[in-house]
Amino acid sequence: MTVIYILGIAIIMLIGINILSALLPAILGNHFISFFGRSYTKRPESLFDKGLNIVFYLMHGIPYFFYIHFMKKHSYWRARFLFGVWTIFFIIVCIIVMILLSLFLELLGFS
To answer: CA-CA distance, 76 to 65, in Å (whole number)?
Structure first.
């Protein structure tokens, strides 16, 4: 049961980091995304580099993907607007998932 509790807390923390990773590009724009671009290895060869890329995508992958996707398809300001709207919905969904996960852990007897 402790493993389930630790796993639930880890998932809640990853969701929280994803919320922050969505807010910062929505506020700072390209400056934060260029930081994201330098945070992972382009062609990983070692196991360590591959592990770092997995951690990067767990923590920042979803917002990074959608920001780049909107920037490729639309003009700058329209893409920023669409990413802002996407961020609002993403945060709402993440908060709902976090609440449901915490209620599930509470139901299992962790309090």
So the answer is: 16
85/51 Cα distance (integer angstroms): 32
- Say which residue the tokens 């880890």 belong to: 10
Residues 6 or more apart in contact with residue 60 via CB below 8 angstroms: 17, 18, 21, 36, 39
For the beta carbon of residue 89, count every other beta carbon within 10 angstroms: 9
Measured CA to CA, the distance from residue 19 to residue 78 in angstroms comes to: 21
d(CA 56, CA 42): 12
CA distance 6 to 64: 27
CA nearest neighbour of 34 among 25, 43, 21: 25
For residue range 56-110, list pLDDT tens digits in order. Answer: 888 888 888 899 999 999 999 999 999 999 999 999 999 999 999 999 988 988 7
Average pLDDT, the chain: 88
Give CA 92 to chain center in angstroms: 13
